[in-house]
């Protein structure tokens, strides 16, 4: 139950950040061109969207951090496995588990260093340039995203250890659509 909630929350955060950043960028670009229209100038000149670029940058950074954890969970990260596929089963399993544990260790270290940085930043008055929100909120994605990614590495490692199955992404799969393979050619005389 907890994992399903975490999975959905992760997906909602990623989709919401991506959608909102795209919408804000679209509105900003349209505003930039419409303000040059003489009839609309008196109305649109007073709308200040200078903060939008900074907000979109922060939203994409947060989206990328949570998207990396999503990538580990679903197996969509790029990996070079030409040599790993040539190993025998015992060695392959050991190398894959080592890689997954290495990823978990690395993201745990980044998360811990990020948490320390954010904690120290909380005791300062630093704010972002345009939005003027506390800087620790902006940098909060580092420990949150890194710890989530560490959890996902451990989750994949645990599953692989017991089932020998890694998550893999099928680019041809679309949720809700069932693919029916074409019928095999019928030989002469069969019907």
UniProtKB/TrEMBL annotation:
Query: What GO annotations for molecular function exist for this entry?
Result: transmembrane transporter activity
Where does the protein end up? Answer: Cell inner membrane
Which UniProt keywords are present, listed alphabetically?
A: Cell inner membrane, Cell membrane, Membrane, Transmembrane, Transmembrane helix, Transport
| Entry keyword annotation includes Transit peptide | no
Give GO terms for biological process: C4-dicarboxylate transport
Task: Domain (Tripartite ATP-independent periplasmic transporters DctQ component): give its ranges.
Answer: 39-158
**Transmembrane regions:** 12-34, 40-63, 95-113, 133-154
Query: What's its membrane topology?
Result: Multi-pass membrane protein
- GO CC terms of this entry: plasma membrane
InterPro entries attached to this UniProt entry:
DctQ (IPR055348), TRAP_DctQ (IPR007387)
Subunit and partners: The complex comprises the extracytoplasmic solute receptor protein and the two transmembrane proteins.
Q: What does this protein do?
A: Part of the tripartite ATP-independent periplasmic (TRAP) transport system.
Q: Which family does it belong to?
A: Belongs to the TRAP transporter small permease family.
Q: What is this protein called?
A: TRAP transporter small permease protein
């Amino acid at each position: 139950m907890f994992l399903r909630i975490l999975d959905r929350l992760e997906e909602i955060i990623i989709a919401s950040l991506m959608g909102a950043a795209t919408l804000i960028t679209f509105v900003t670009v349209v505003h930039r061109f419409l303000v040059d229209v003489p009839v609309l100038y008196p109305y649109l000149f007073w709308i200040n969207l200078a903060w939008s670029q900074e907000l979109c940058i922060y939203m994409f950074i947060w989206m990328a951090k949570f998207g990396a954890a999503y990538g580990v969970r679903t197996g969509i990260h790029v990996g070079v496995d030409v040599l790993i596929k040539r190993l025998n089963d015992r060695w392959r399993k050991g190398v894959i588990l080592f890689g997954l544990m290495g990823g978990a260790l690395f993201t745990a270290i980044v998360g811990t260093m990020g948490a320390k940085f954010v904690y120290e930043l909380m005791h300062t008055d630093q704010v972002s340039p345009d939005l003027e929100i506390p800087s620790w909120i902006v940098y909060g994605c580092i420990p949150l995203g890194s710890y989530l990614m560490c959890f996902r590495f451990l989750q994949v490692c645990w599953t692989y250890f017991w089932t020998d199955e890694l998550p893999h992404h099928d680019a041809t799969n679309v949720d809700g659509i069932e693919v029916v393979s074409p019928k095999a050619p019928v030989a002469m005389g069969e019907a």
